[in-house]
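hiii, so i know i said id send this last week but things got crazy w the move. better late than never?? heres the sequnce for the chain we talked about at the cafe, plus the structure i predicted for it. fair warning i was half asleep when i ran it
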Amino acid sequence: MTTRDAGRLTTYVLTLQCQDAPGIVRSAAEGIFEVDGNIVENDQFTDPTTGQFCMRSRFEAASDDLGGVRATLLARLAHLDPRLRLRRESEHRRALVMVSKEDHCLADLLARRDHGELPLDIPAVVSNHTDCEATAVRSGVPFAYLPVTATSKPDAEAALVSLIEEHRIDFVVLARYMQVLSPELCRRLEGRVINIHHSFLPGFKGARPYHQAYDRGVKLIGATAHYVTADLDEGPIIDQDVARVTHARQPADLIAIGRDLERTVLARAVRLEAEDRIALVGRRTVVFSQ
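okay and structure toks below
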């Protein structure tokens, strides 16, 4: 039996960002070759505005020593001062999901995870209401109730940070969580929080956006998934989708269509993050889709 027997190989996911320069792909490939690795998928892109080089590679290697493989790759790429992340593909990333009263996005994420359609671990669901507790419990996910008021918000966010650390959370998903995170928390979790909302912004802010859209006779509605920043709903966009509607659609119809879009757009964004397919470049994202 050879060292490259498929039953003994470990699949790794490598992501790399650095300033563009000659020889980056060669250096990475040499590091992978040095650990007896074989590249099975590779994507790369250089942002023309910033000169940032982004790469994602899946490769198989005979070694299961994550630390040793990482050290070998870093040695080959150190001269580039890279941001490098490496994980075994079999070790799923871990997401904490936050929700308020509506459970359509939460239920969809849990169902996809339960059916093996979403390569993600969800160790906890957090909410400022108890409406969605049953949805989490049905899927065997611990539910944490953290009520938020103007006076309790600092304590609630401190408790949230403790949960993130306790469960070794990689990123947070706001699955219709209807609270604004503090600027301090946004900075602390920069690039690690994904939000979903309708795509009417900045046109129809505040309450009842679908009713506002109906009053204006919109012909397109949609959903946007983006990273959260201290600038409300203005973070780097990950995924979007739209649906055409006619004058015959009532506000309840628009809400139902919007919910469907929110489910699918958020699920796509979470999957992209779970598979390490997103690179943040300033206020924009580079997305390596399948």
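btw The helical segments are 24-34, 66-77, 104-114, 133-138, 153-166, 183-188, 209-215, 251-274. thought thatd interest u
miss u guys!!
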